[in-house]
Amino acid sequence: MEMHEFILSLLIILVSARIFAEIFSYMKIPPVLGEVFAGIIIGPSLLGIVEVNEIIKILAEVGIILLLFEVGLETDIKKLQKEGMKSVTVALFGAVVPFLGGFMISYYMFELPLVTSLFVGGTLTATSIGITVRVLKDLGKERTTESQIVVGAAVLDDVIGVILLVILADFALTGQVNLENTIKIIILVAFFFATAPALAAVMSKFIHIYDLKYRKLPGFIPTIIISLILFFSYIAHLFGAPEIIGAFAAGIALSRRFFLPFGIALKADPHFVEKLESQMRPLIYLFTPIFFVTVGLSMNLKEIDFGSSTFWLLTFSLLIIAIIGKVGGAYLIKGVSNLKKLIIGTSMVPRGEVGLIFAELGRTAKVFTNEIYSAVVFIVILTTLIPPFIMKYLFKLEDKVEK
User: Fold this and answer.
1) What share of the chain is helix, strand, coil (3-state, %, to 5)?
2) 299 assigned to some structural domain
3) Angle at 270 (CA atoms; ends 264, 276), nearest 5 degrees
């Protein structure tokens, strides 16, 4: 891609994201859907004036990394620890049931090949943490108990999704599962989770001291914090975890609510945290829309065969298990009202970019026919676009009940 073409593409992405976000906000619809819709409009589904290339993908990845840093920054670690087992329950049920359900429907009902059926199940596994947390922020509900449970579950979901992706990709190539490699990834990811936030918190104290005593040049905080985020994102990748988990860990560590293991507190200066948030916010708001527009750009509605009866039957069957698998996990947790359980379950439904990665891998590995690929992509579209409307209604209902 020529430089002038990239500049034009980026211009169209940023302007269309803002226009549709404003329109959707005016219509009292979560603005994130406007950004996804912008991608559908300017992408191959309709106008075809912007293509997803490697540079756009990288900028989109930076966007989701910064978004997860902000989520970590606003996460109440005490609440996250308190609701930890609830998050684990929601994540495990919400990953295992859709995977097994998708596999069994594909393998036994539609008699698809084993590898194909496994990939279909994998597509339904992971929640799109990007879509979910952005909707929660748009609705002003990012610090509620439900949100803490959802964030914890979605982070675990993402890790499970990546591990499953590695296993299935290996299985598609070799026809067997490398158990030793899988166990190694799980151990490394667990080690990263246990050590990264504490390490980031210690590093942040040195940053704060330097900022107070020695800093002379402007722009120190954004530069050093971006460096810290990228460092932990890279370390997460080396450990076999998604890059966004590294950014999330860095955000948690810099939060004013962070506690080291065994209850040892690193008391953050609230003024420093506020300064950090105010200086990072413009960067976050610049890059995150690129990610959500890219989700829309990746959805090609023209490739979907709407005239196929198999397509509709497979889509309907998988959609049911995709929803039940996520919502059902929320109903296993205790100490939460049924309405809150429904909110948690609905918040876990969006598949977004994670489902599209599985679908694309299935197609490039030649385990998906066009019909199956179309069904899977359509499920991703439906589970991305519909839940935010339901979440908004349920939160409004909850507000009325609590009044």
Assistant:
1) 80, 0, 20
2) no
3) 110
Interacting residues of 210 by C-beta distance below 8 A, sequence separation 6+: 220
Domain span at residue 110 reads 65-285+310-402
> What's the token pair of residue 80?
């996250």
What is the total count of domains within the chain?
1
pLDDT in tens, 388-403: 889 989 988 888 877 6
Location of structure tokens 């918040």: 347
pLDDT at 177: 67
- Report yes or no on 41 lying in a domain: no
Q: Does 357 fall in a domain? A: yes
List CB contacts of 224: < 8 A, sequence separation 6 or more: 207
Is 22 within the bounds of a domain? no
Q: What is the 3-state secondary structure (H, E, C) of 33-76?
A: HHHHHHHHHHCCCCCCCCCCCHHHHHHHHHHHHHHHHHHHHHCC
Long-range contacts of 357-363 (CB under 8 A, 24+ apart): 357/165, 358/119, 358/122, 358/123, 358/125, 358/161, 358/165, 358/168, 359/123, 360/298, 361/119, 361/165, 361/168, 361/169, 361/172, 362/116, 362/119, 362/120, 362/123
Give the integer Cα–Cα distance in Å for 385 and 32: 10
Mean pLDDT computed over 167-179: 72
Q: How far apart, in whole angstroms, are the C-alpha atoms of residue 156 and residue 164?
A: 12
Residue 315 and residue 110 in contact, taking contact as beta carbons nearer than 8 Å: no
Question: pLDDT tens-digit profile of 24-43?
Answer: 888 888 888 899 899 999 99
The answer to whether the beta carbons of residues 39 and 48 sit under 8 Å apart is no
The predicted model gives 216-227 an average pLDDT of: 77
What does the block give as tokens for 178? 């490398």
Task: Render pLDDT for 199-217 as a digit per residue (tens, 0 to 9).
Answer: 766 776 776 676 666 666 6
Per-residue confidence (pLDDT) for residue 41, from 0 to 100: 94
**Domain of 223: which CATH number?**
1.20.1530.20
Rounded to whole angstroms, the Cα distance separating 244 from 252 reads 12
Residue with tokens 């439900």: 146
Q: How confident is the model at residue 16 (pLDDT cuts 50, 70, 90)?
A: very high
Lookup: tokens for 378: 């359509």
